[in-house]
Amino acid sequence: MILKIRAALSALVLLVSTFVAAGASPAAAAVQTLNWTTDGDITRFKSAPSSAVAGETTIVWENSEATGNTIGMPHTLTFDTSTEGYNHDVTINQLASPFDQNNGRWVLQTTLTPGKYRYFCTIPGHSTMVGEFTVTGGPVEDTTPPTVTGSVSGNQDDNGDYVGSATVTVSASDTGSGVAGVEYQVDDTGFEPYTAPVVVSELGDHSVQFRATDNAGNASAVGSVSFTVVEQGEEDVTPPTAAHTIAGDKDANGNYIGTATVTVTATDADSGVALIEYNVDGGAFQPYTAPVVVTGAGPHMVHYRATDNAGNRSAEQMASFTIVAPTTPDTTPPATNATVAGDKDANGNFIGTATVTVTATDDGGSGVDTVEYALDSGAWTAYTTPVAVTAVGAHTVRYRATDKAGNVAPEKSVAFTVVAPPQPDTTAPTTNASAAGEQDGDGNFVGAATVTVTANDSESGVARIQYALDNGGWTTYTTPVVVRTPGAHTLKYRATDNAGNTAPEKSVTFTVVSSGEDGCPASDTRPTVIIGNDDTGVPNRDTGDGCTVNDLIAEFDPYPNHAAFVRHVETVTAPLVPGTLTPRQQGAIVRAAARSGVGS
């Protein structure tokens, strides 16, 4: 009597061929969208469809920053139109880059027909970016129920009984609307949804029934498989391990020239390898007995798998590569060149270090293989990065290159001299200052004193001179300083060279007395200090010699630039603090000068 015991279910993937999602109608398959994406990786498409239905199709092909391509890598989406075993009716060959006119996102229209399509990237070096997908029948009225079959797998003894457990795999297909659902029951225990192969491990005789329904509501007849499970001994449940290698001559882009030979190996530590199978470019699987030699220019794929003596089969794997036609033998040696860079002295010698950069190119087709150099009488050394030479004296760097066809370029050389760098400048500039102008019998300057500051540096050179009048702040010295305000004055000065050395602060003292004459007969007597249209609100006072603050500012005089005018205003107002102006009033005047356009 058949045991009515429900078998345990494993977590394997549902094996239902040509499956269409539940709830889809035949009309829904008429218009579909398929998406391909890539990023900066040149070994695979980031995402791609594995199946589709026949009919009008929108293809969204995106290689953009949004899909992870942040380095600007271009790719193509190209449909195979020549390899046997695939549909050839889609001729899409679209280049996409994050920097193209669509920012890497292309929307393309086509029509798919039932069968298998192969796609790949045609850019050299991207030959492993390849894949395929299957298209099932298009939208037609479906009145035919699905086809449903069941198979039993597992280790069997000499009587055909399954040792330890038996796995029932149900497959359903529907060429019309697609499979909507599959159900099964073990030993008449009641139908339930089939989601994964059913593992029956209870000892004894068993029967598994199954049925399928398509999206048009057509139900198949009930099918069944019967089997017996017997006690398990030690068994091999591990599939073989399979791997491949590809051999052949390659070009600079990694493509195989003329021929590629694929060798497949498999090992199994338990029951041993029983069979290796392979196919080329989607053809039928056939037994593997010797390395597979593939010829013919273009991209290719070799699929392979292995089965052990216990019936365990490895996952299907793939070797992908591109073959290019043989080229004319390369008999031309590489072209080489060398340049020397670094800081030079007046005689053209390199100061401290000379860096030699060697370059090589090969127009013969095989590409540069090695570049070598030799410094002075030293041995030949592989060149990988520019050569820095620091030893003082005359030098010669010899260099040569060899291409992948064995052609060696003639030896060349470059000569140069390295000298020791100069000692650093640690000496500050020398400075001096003098006051000039009309003087009275006591040595006082009548009306104005003009102070000239000089600086000299024989090494790195003078970078700047600064001065400070009385209690004013340090100001960059550009022209002699004219001081008209009556009274005793002190002008401090200093200088800094281009090495950052600053001379000790020095000073010059002098006294300005009034000339007794009106220094500005046509004086500007407006009540407040005004620059352009900017009224500062500061009283326009007499500075002691008949000249007002506005007279000293002299906004209508010529200036080489705006900065020179602002510096002039700072210079003539600084001696007026304290006395004629407060520090705040002087600051207001300087800011008004900065806001003006005088000198622009």
What features would you describe in this structure?
The protein contains 3 helices and 42 strands. With 600 residues, it is mainly β. It folds into 5 domains: 1-235, Cupredoxins -  blue copper proteins (Immunoglobulin-like, Sandwich); 241-324, Immunoglobulin-like; 335-419, Sandwich (Immunoglobulin-like); 430-513, Immunoglobulin-like (Sandwich); 528-595, no CATH class. Residues 1-30 have low confidence and may be disordered. The longest helix is centred in the last third of the chain and has 13 residues, at 583-595. The termini are far apart.
Outline:
The protein has 600 residues and is mainly beta. Helices cover 5% and strands 43% of the residues.
Secondary structure layout plus pairing:
Elements: E1 31-37, E2 51-53, E3 55-62, E4 75-79, E5 93-96, E6 105-112, E7 115-120, E8 130-136, E9 147-153, E10 162-163, E11 166-173, E12 179-186, E13 192-193, E14 198-200, E15 204-214, E16 223-230, E17 241-247, E18 256-257, E19 259-267, E20 273-280, E21 286-287, E22 292-295, E23 298-308, E24 317-324, E25 335-341, E26 350-351, E27 354-361, E28 368-375, E29 381-382, E30 387-389, E31 393-403, E32 412-419, E33 430-436, E34 445-446, E35 449-456, E36 462-469, E37 475-476, E38 481-483, E39 487-497, E40 506-513, E41 528-531, E42 534-539, H1 549-553, H2 562-573, H3 583-595
Parallel strand pairs: 1-3, 2-8, 10-16, 18-24, 26-32, 34-40
Antiparallel strand pairs: 3-6, 4-5, 4-7, 7-8, 9-11, 11-14, 12-13, 12-15, 15-16, 17-19, 19-22, 20-21, 20-23, 23-24, 25-27, 27-30, 28-29, 28-31, 31-32, 33-35, 35-38, 36-37, 36-39, 39-40, 41-42
